[in-house]
Amino acid sequence: MAVCATTAAKAQKLSTEKVPAPVKAAFEKLHPHTRVNWEMEKKNYEAGFTANGKETSEVYNAGGSLLETEVAIKVSELPASVQSKLKGMKVAEVAKITKADGSVNYEAEVKGKDLLFDPNGNPVKP
Q: The whole model's pTM is what?
């Protein structure tokens, strides 16, 4: 799965039985009847799935609150300001990350490292 690959180094696969009920309920409410793969990311739960034909992941806390949504996109879908920062680099994967507060960042995997940018192309610390 493309999106989850960017977090694979720090995430562990998790069986559905080990996901807290509030997390499963929150996901099911937003995405009924959706096939999902769960992973543990630090102390949070990451749901990997396909939505609208795009690899997607959502991160929930143990109480079932959605923290962020990450959607795989093409380099051409990045804002021009972010594309200019990546000019000449070999980009493996790109994603749009939307936080619970509505703020958006863009993630680009370059040489096995994730680079984060705000919509204006400014680097963001993870």
A: 0.86
